[in-house]
Amino acid sequence: MGGTMTAESVEHQVEWPVPPQDGYTVEDLFTLPNLPPHTELIDGSLVFVSPQRRFHYLAINLLFDGLRAALPGEFSVEREMTVVLDDRNGPEPDICVVRADAVTGLDQTRFRAEDALLVVEVVSPESGSRDRTTKPHKYAAAGIRNFWRVEQDGPTGGLFVHVYEIDPLTSRYVHMGLHKDKLDVEKPYPISLDLTAI
After folding, report:
1. Distance, CA of 30 to CA of 142 (rounded, Å)
2. DSSP 106
3. How far apart are CA 95 and CA 161, in angstroms?
4. What is the pLDDT along the chain (198 residues), one digit of tens a residue?
5. pTM for the structure as a whole
6. From the centroid of its chain, how far is CA 62?
């Protein structure tokens, strides 16, 4: 009796979309049905996000609140919104600062790279390579002037922030500093933030 299989015991099979020969486009990212939340598009491939760790959540909250507290009226701070870099790349930075006039309403799903002044990535174990190499390279090539990479200081430590600015001659990011206890920067606008508050 234990060896028979009934219709009720067959597990539901997940049907994954078959990628087009040339990869997905940004429009596919916004029109494919049933994609998991926070799916990104990198080089025409869909990237699914792993469950968020508490450090990731707290770091985003700390930086988001700090960026908003000092925000000039001509900018807007956005959380986990797609930034369209080109037809085959639509990453979703953890935080971005955009021009306020690029905000179109509550149903908005994306921003253009040219509207972003800062993108922030909080590194997770599963996203480390993308956050340290792939995404910064693509953000710089798209002309986004400022990039912050946020990491945890050891398994039980607080956070530290690597600050980068674009070099207009090479279109690559230049490391401008590592901030551990306090973040003090002038770009994209003056910000002073206690990083120990996490």
Report:
1. 20
2. T
3. 13
4. 455 554 554 455 666 667 788 899 999 999 998 888 899 999 999 998 887 788 999 999 999 999 999 999 999 999 999 999 999 999 999 999 999 999 999 999 999 999 999 999 999 877 888 999 999 999 999 999 999 999 998 877 889 999 999 999 999 999 999 999 999 999 999 999 999 988
5. 0.88
6. 15
